[in-house]
Amino acid sequence: MVNRRQYARRSNLGGRRRGGGFRWQIMILFAIGAAVYYFANQETVPITGRKQLRTMDANAEMQLGLQSYQQILADSQVLQRGPVVDAVNEIGVRLARQAEGMMVEETGEETGFDWAFNVIESEQANAFALPGGYTAVYTGLIPIAENEDGLAVIMGHEIGHALAHHGAERMAQQNMQRIVGAGVAMGAGGMDAGAQRAVMGVFGGISQYGFALPFSRKHESEADEIGLYLVARACYDPREAPRLWERMGAQAGATPPEFQSTHPSPDTRIQDFQRLMPRAIEIYNASCPNKIR
User: Fold this and answer.
1) Which of 23, 150, 186, 270 has the highest Cβ tally under 10 A?
2) Are 178 and 186 in contact (CB under 8 A)?
3) Residues of the chain with pLDDT under 70
């Protein structure tokens, strides 16, 4: 007969053995599912030709963009008239015309965007273009833009995000991360609580620094490239792009290391613009014969 003390020792030993190892079979199944999801939903980014993961229908994406835009404008002080409003509208119309031309050349079809341009009174140095071409510039950005060419670079960048469907791609990538994350969580399900936390912590770090942040920086660089070509086609000086980012860098002050950021550093962006500039100048000269550089 086992006495209570012996039974307690055996129970404790059994408890220590209860945590198992990582169940790789489950993780592999989820990884296969993520791979199928990825390769079954490939689209091509116009202009750059990059392959992207995208599952959302373009019309649904535009509807989400419109809803968000209406909500932002309703919660903001939107300027109705003035020199800045006039400049933003003029630049927007010229960039939109060139965006449609580029898309027809690339895909044979227009964007279907319901272009809109507004100016929001705010100290924020910010601008955005949502799916559907719904664009806004915050007045806090105007002093940094400094001139029409600089403002065109900013707006071209934001429109580049919309043309490349970065919002829809981001949502699809997040879905894929959730699939992999569920696989990691289930694979670690047989481990003790401390080991599970450690595994999920490692997964979180890899997901953030090895995937999400580099992915976001890639979007910013791609929008820079598309925007630069738009600016050149619309006959704004593309050489203002690196100058703008010199001003942006001076305005930003101390920033975290690039690997911790959603955006490339100003220095990286300047280098990228310099690399892309010969092509941009070529487009500018072909599009604007009266302004050959």
Assistant:
1) 150
2) no
3) 1-19, 253-254, 292-293
